[in-house]
Write a structure and sequence with these properties.
The chain is an all-alpha fold and 75 residues long. It is built from five helices and no strands.
């Protein structure tokens, strides 16, 4: 999720984003909020692929973390 999607294969990033709400409970608070899971998910809002951006916004909604609101609003 760190790099832009491969235009030939965006499914991997979509799949990873879809899994985030299911696996987030296994991350420590530091892994969740300090530049890791949340930042990677919010950075996906800037991905060149429209589908990845949509999946990122849906993922952030499912997480319910209000810290992501500004990132979604700035897109």
């Amino acid at each position: 999720m760190r790099s832009p999607s491969d235009p030939q294969d965006t499914n991997a990033k979509d799949d990873a984003l879809t899994l985030v709400p299911k696996i987030i409970k296994y991350f420590s608070a530091q892994e969740y909020g300090n530049g890791n899971v949340m930042d990677l998910t919010m950075n996906a809002l800037k991905d060149p692929d429209t589908g990845v951006r949509l999946t990122a916004s849906i993922t952030l909604d499912r997480l319910g973390d209000i810290s992501a609101v500004a990132a979604v609003m700035s897109v």
